[in-house]
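Q: How would the C-alpha cells look for this protein?
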Amino acid sequence: MPEKWPRNVGNFFKTRKEFFEKVVNVPRRKTIFINEIFNPKKVNPFQDKTPSIMYTLLHKNISRHINITDNEFELFTQRLQTNTLKKNELFLLAGNSCRYTYFINKGMVRQYEIDSNGFEKNIMFAKEEWWVSDLYSFHSGKAGDKYLQSLEQTEVFMLSKSDMEELFIKIPKLERFWRLLHINAFISNQERVTLHLSKSAEERYSSFLKKYPNGEMRISQKNIASYLGISPEFLSTMKKRMKS
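A: Here is the predicted structure in C-alpha cell form.
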C-alpha cells in the first residue's frame, strides 16, 4: 500500500478508506483508470480529423485559398483568441495601435473614420467569414485612424501580429494566404474609390446591395448612407424613386 496520499486523489475520493477500497484493493487490471485520473491525457479536438464546429467557417475561409492539413489548422487555431462583442461595442479606437486582425465568426462589424468636421465616414462592413483590421496600424505598429465597432452581438477570432509571424515560420503557406487576403482587400478598396468618384448614388447603392445581400436588414439606414456618401434623407428618397 502506498504510504503517501496520491496527488489529486482528494478531487475524486472523500476519504483514504474509499480510495483504498475502490482502487488499491482491487485486481490490477481494474485499476488502470487511476493513471488516467492522476495523469489525464490532453484531448485532441482534431483526433477525428474533422475541424471543430466552432472553427467551421474559419476552416472554410482558409481552405478557399490554400490547402491546409488538420495538424496545421490545429496549430493555427491554438494561436487565436476568442471574444464576444456586445452590440455597438467599440473595440478599436483611432489613435491606438491595432494589435489584432479579426475574423468574424458571427455578427457584423463596421470600420469607419471621423473627418475634420466630426462626421463619421463608414469605410466597410465586415460580415461572417470576413477578416477586418486597420492594416496600416496592424503591420506598422503605429497608431491608426480607424474605428471598429460591432453592429450586433458579434463573435470574433483574434490573431496578433507576433503570433502571425510565428505561424509564417511554422506554416509557410500561410504567407500566401495572407498575401491573397491583402490583395483582395486592396482590390476592394480600389473598387470602392472608383465607385465614389465615377458612379451615381443609385449605382453605388446597387453595388452595396450586391456586396451585402441582406445588408439592409442588419445595417441602419444612417450607416448605409454614410457608406454611400449621402445623407439618410437622400437615401430614403432615392430608394422610393428606384422602387417606383
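Confidence is low (pLDDT under 50) at residues 1-13, 22-50.

The two ends are 89 Å apart (CA to CA).

Upvote if useful.
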